[in-house]
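Bumping with the actual sequence this time:
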Amino acid sequence: MNLVLVAIHLEASARAVPLGPAMLASVVKRAFPGAVHTQILDLFLHQSAEACATQILALNPDWVGLSLYVWNRALGREIARILRARKPSLLLFAGGSEATADPGGVMGEGFLDLVLPGEGEDLLVEVVGRLLKGTPVAEIRRAIRPASVKDLATLPSPYLDGSLDPAAYPGMLWELSRGCPFRCDFCFESRGTEGTRRVPMERVKAELLHFEACGVSQVFVLDPTFNFDKRQAKAILRLIAAQAPAIHFFFEIRSEFIDPELARLFAAIRCSLQIGLQSADDTVLRNINRSIDPEDFEAKVLLLHEAGATYGFDLIYGLPGDTLEGFHASLDFALSLAPNHLDIFPLSVLPGTRLHDTAPDFGLQHLKDIPYTVLASPGFSEADMRAAARTAQACDRMYNQGKAVPWFALLMEALGWAPSELFTRFADFLDAHADPDTTALQVAFFTSCFSDPKAAAVAADIVSYFGYSGALMEAAERNPQSPSDDPEAWLRTHTRLAPFHHDPRALLDLLESGLTDLEGLACTLPDHPCQALLSIEGGDPMLRIASPAEAAAFGRNTI
């Protein structure tokens, strides 16, 4: 029998790895060697349902399994409809979070034979065994009962058994645990599971060594609270430092469990940390079964900051009991702690979560179909939700895409604005100005913000240097070629010609000496209009003043 397991990814990225289907392929391979030929297919949200169905049918499947999530349920439904019409003999089933949270709704769409809710490994083995014995599908359907895998050590590793080749993808997903010790009402992670179960350290080490041997460059760790078990977290971080120092890791952590040693261990490896702040208002958080002590949160984040670890926060707007003003206050609190990035989302009332049950009590109006986002609440009108979305988009463009961390506090202090006010103004600015060059947009915006031309010029130079050098470093990491490979391509990705009002070398010297007051910088720096060549050498930004001839040559890509 030919089984095709389908992953429908949001977009092509380092996270687009079919780990779920690969886990299923591993258990089927182990349980039915030779009886079932399993193939994994990567599809993407931008593809048409017809094209997806054609790719699936080209593999000549007898059975097809679809992994359904919030972002792909509509496309998955359409693919199933086309497959049913084009090959009626196919057995079609679905798993994933949408199938787990809303099995009746998914089955009720009428194109699937089976829905496998919950953790799928043991359930799929049971179903495949019954199918091979000729058990009628209707009988199998009646017998399906979701269940958690009690011991993750019983599962084979799709990396180590060859079901998933790390070298075939730009990044890897690495599952270290299942379940969550917390019960946040908006989250599905802990609902219906039997506590937190962890992958044994022996397998963790074997998989890590395999990633290193395969040349994996980045790993996204699937553990919603990596540092909950601090002893094991520290052991894994020491193992990474010793065995895989070149790989960049992405972790989700909780602030409560940060201590000085853990902060130092994070800082000692290449990693980025994501902390679910959600809101800085304890009263609001208690409505979703969370809490916060802002002083403790700040103290724990300060440990990361002092150690030199890279960290970011998540914020949610539209939470029950929150207001637009409260969201702005949380935004201002978050940015006062200098995160490397800030991800902001509207609240979604996901089926299967406790919030889905309590939403009427809070007066939450939300979409009944995907993506289930909140439209309004008693304290958060539809207009307020739109305003929060504009603020979130402006924050992403300026702070995240705009590499604003090095200069953000300096310019905020000079303007005397709260971050929420800045992003509200920037959102209005974006309505009237379109430019794909984010740094150029920032320069134009800040130039308009300062009434003093000297202060505006220094602000523009600061934003230009850090914006363009940051973009070059990011591009160089994505495309680490040498000049000899393709000189013109290297020039485009590793070098930038940028105008400055002052000598940028003198500006950087003053910043490094500790002069971080915009007024002081404006008084100290002599005017020196010039063009500078920014480049990346040895992983670090470099600059030099360009002569008129060099500037002209750069425009012709002939430097």
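The tokens above came from a reply further down the thread. The first helix runs from residue 19 to 31.
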